[in-house]
Write a structure and sequence with these properties.
alpha/beta, Rossmann fold, 3 domains, 6-stranded parallel beta sheet, binds 2-acetamido-2-deoxy-beta-D-glucopyranose, fucose metabolism, glycoprotein
Length: about 575
């Protein structure tokens, strides 16, 4: 399928070329003198008819191909979920009703389309695929250095159990926070468990997603991790003895002192505590650097995906690149031995393989409905999103009743609206990505399906997803496991030549960009639009010149790629450029 895409694409370009030629033809006709027109028409009636048939045929073929692309890209069944919060990680509810295409920026889209056509013939040299700032490569991974004083206490204060909620990426954060807390409290950590949720419907446990032994051994100098509780604690009713600690007991982003005051006494008294839920329960600053480093080591070194996931992900990546060997440290870290490491010189590697951009398009129904923005779909869309909110976000509805309403226009100005596929495509074209660019779409259950994706695929038809790259039988072992599917997206995004996100608040996007910073050696660019700035630029959609649009988008993206040290309170998983995590050379 993916091989086919490439040929289709060149046809697509050809067709667009022909279409604009036919436009020229008709305008030159207008110049013919009226008096002569009759005779001229008689003479040429056959060729005119012929041209009309030909043009008609091309239009038909064109729309046929658009619909083929769309059905490939969006072949998902409709599911409805009972969600309590925003889901992130790539698996989301989806409605697949056929609707007419929705476009908000007709003018910019056609400017983008001509700009892309022009690029096919006059390729400009550009550095889209590179990091713009050289300093990026002066930061190297170093959280796995043996600390001079590992600080593992011989005597354990007791056992910490964790049942992490949420999807793959939220769980990852919870695991590494738990590792840090276990070290803080001189406790022994029981291998984390994952809660089954009605949203995710995924029964996967730690060992289905990560390599257990590896995790235990990488952290063994810092934290004791065991697979089972000792027999004397196994039969204890944790809740009855007061050792159950829920998110209501511990503040969001709590400080170490909160743990020492609240949790340590229970641990010392009962020998065990159980964190239930446990999302973002440990803040980033202030935190002793030993613990910060440990979190970083956990996230970037200790959590290796299970072989089954690495194997399928390496198939994915190899099929997009049409290349079989590892190219970077990111490949090696994420795909392990499933990506053979054939030593070869740089230019040889580049010649044999295809580049791709991975896009995490966070425009799924939950996100769209939650935002309360207007996406140009008119009354029917407003009603649909309102009823989605009523079913899935009762708390939000309650809150809205008692607060002052913010208009959709205001929300857009404030940068609170998720980017539509159309906006994402405009962004990529302003940055100069060509029509034929290979794009791996993560998540991919887009709200409005074809009606929304059409604007995107008209500019970028070479879209692939895990569903198009893997055969049904290759996907089968993952089908009921949303976290494992999300892990495939995680890897395909992290190892991409360029990663583009549409929402920097998303866990998947932020963890992936952290990985690219940590292991990318300054050569793994991430595109992170600033939604507020973009909204300002797009508010001029009906007047802005294409060149100005390009300039302003490029500046915005470059701003997001500046090489900065992690700011106070910022996530070390997302921004590992921090002395506890990376070393500056
Ligand atoms: C943990 O052990 C270290 C010594 O290794 C000690 O300084 C620290 O106070 C202990 N912390 C707790 C909470 O027991
Ligand atoms: C997935 O779930 C469906 C229905 O619940 C079941 O029929 C199918 O066998 C499951 N597939 C796997 C691979 O577990
Ligand atoms: C596009 O431009 C029109 C006319 O200036 C404006 O009214 C509209 O709000 C703009 N659209 C967006 C989404 O900013």
């Amino acid at each position: 399928m993916s091989r086919g895409d490439h040929n289709w694409n060149s046809k697509f370009v050809l067709l667009n070329g022909l279409k604009s030629d036919s436009g020229k033809f008709s305008s030159s006709c207008k110049g013919v003198h009226v008096g002569k027109r009759h005779m001229w028409f008689h003479k040429n009636v056959r060729s005119i008819a012929y041209i009309f048939v030909l043009v008609g045929f091309f239009f038909l073929l064109d729309s046929l191909m658009v619909s083929i692309f769309d059905s490939i890209n969006l072949q998902h069944s409709s599911t409805s979920k009972n969600s309590k919060g925003l889901k992130d990680d790539g698996k989301v509810a989806h409605t697949n009703k056929e609707k007419p295409p929705v476009k908000m920026y007709g003018r910019l889209l056609s400017l983008a389309s001509s700009a892309l056509t022009e690029k096919e013939f006059k390729p400009k040299k550009s550095d889209l695929w590179k990091e713009p700032y050289k300093q990026a490569s002066s930061w190297k991974p170093c959280a796995d250095r043996r600390p001079p004083n590992p600080g593992k206490h011989d005597k354990s204060n007791g056992y910490i159990m964790v049942s992490a909620n949420g999807g793959l990426n939220q769980q990852r954060v919870a695991i590494c926070n738990a590792v840090a807390v276990a070290s803080l409290l001189n406790a022994t950590l029981l291998l984390p468990r994952f809660l089954y949720s009605n949203v995710w419907k995924d029964p996967s446990q730690f060992g289905d997603i990560y390599q257990e032994e590896y995790f235990i051994s990488v952290l063994k100098h810092e934290v004791n991790i065991v697979k089972e509780l000792p027999p004397r604690l196994k039969s204890i009713d944790i809740e009855a003895i007061g050792s159950l600690i829920t998110d209501a007991d511990i503040a969001k982003e709590a400080k170490p002192i909160d743990y020492v005051r609240k949790v340590l006494p229970i641990l010392l008294r009962n020998g065990v505590v159980h964190f239930l839920g446990y999302g973002n329960r440990l803040g980033f600053d202030p935190l002793p650097s030993k613990l910060q480093r440990l979190r970083c080591k956990c996230n970037f070194h200790a959590l290796k995906f299970a072989p089954k996931i690495q194997e399928a992900a390496s198939l994915l990546v190899r099929r997009i690149r049409k290349h079989d060997s590892a190219r970077s440290m990111l490949d090696k870290q994420l795909l392990g031995n499933y990506m053979p490491n054939i030593p070869s010189r740089h230019h040889e590697v580049a010649r044999g393989s295809y580049r791709y951009l991975a896009l995490h398009l966070r425009f799924e129904e939950d996100m769209v409905a939650y935002s309360q923005c207007d996406f140009g779909g008119g009354e029917s869309e407003r009603k649909e999103l309102q009823s989605y909110r009523e079913i899935h976000f009762p708390l939000l509805i309650e809150r809205l009743k008692s607060s002052k309403p913010i208009s959709p226009e205001e929300l857009r100005k404030l940068g609170r609206c998720p980017l539509t596929p159309e906006e994402a495509a405009l962004l990529l074209s302003a940055l100069g990505f060509k029509h034929g660019t290979y794009i791996y779409l993560a998540g991919s259950q887009i709200y409005g399906a074809n009606s929304r994706m059409q604007a995107f695929t008209s500019l970028y038809p070479n879209l692939v997803t895990k569903e198009t790259l893997l055969t049904p039988s290759e996907l089968e072992p993952f089908r009921n496991f949303s976290s494992q599917l999300a892990a495939l997206d995680f890897i395909a995004c992290a190892t991409a030549d360029v990663f583009a996100m549409t929402d920097s608040g998303s866990q998947l996007s932020s963890l992936v960009s952290g990985f690219r910073t940590y292991y990318g050696n300054g050569q793994a660019p991430t595109l992170r639009p600033n939604k507020k700035r973009l909204a300002t630029i797009l508010s001029e959609n009906s007047t802005i010149r294409w060149n100005d649009f390009e300039d302003r988008v490029r500046k915005m993206i470059e701003e997001g790629q500046r090489v900065r040290v992690r700011g106070f309170g910022r996530s070390i998983y997302r921004q590992p450029r921090s002395p506890e995590c990376m070393c500056r050379t």
